[in-house]
Amino acid sequence: MTMYAPPGSTAPGGRRRRGGTSLPKQPERSLMSALPGALSITALCTALAEPAWLRVHGGTCPRQELGVADVLGYIDPKLLDDYCMNPQTILLLRVIAAFCFLGILCSLTAFLLDVFGPKHPALKITRRYAFAHILTVLQCATVIGFCYWASELILSLQQQHKKYHGSLIYVTFAISFYLVAGAGGASILATAANLLRHYPTEEEEQALELLSEMEDSSETFPADYDIANQFQPPPAYTP
Q: Within 50-201, where are the H helices?
């Protein structure tokens, strides 16, 4: 008579493992939000490197484009002498640069959380509720607001120092402004991708973790272990 073991996977060397299938695990990675997060980082870095934030038309300022690169480090005295900027405008542009750096830091943090998907409770909550992406959106909105304020100050300064009487003076936004706006839009998409994703409840997570621990801690036995234990007849009855 031939006996056979119950269905299951048999490991090499005549040893088998309990359980036929592995439990599905909820991945914490979110590539759908990591992609717009990477676009946000790229846009903010490019905006900082690009010198064109504001374009000046008319007035006494010989420069047609102004940006944060003009106020980081050494400041050309001609910017003040030619009435291109005043001390308040310089301060605003430096604040804009600081918020751009903070936006890059928050966006980079969100990108790393989305790519690696850590299981630490605090990091998991931060990623699932897209706190870093939301901070990036707020910082981009702050930069846009300060850009508008700086453009109004430069426009007022140019109107006070016209090159010709009746000259048409106006200030427009340049490419870096739109890059920051695009970074904010990309962060909004990343936030939506995280918030709209379905996650298991706390009870479901605890059950999955418990079953996963039971599966991982299951021991291996000889191939004839199940035969000896499952097909062995019961002991003889003794009155």
A: 77-81, 87-116, 121-128, 131-160, 175-195
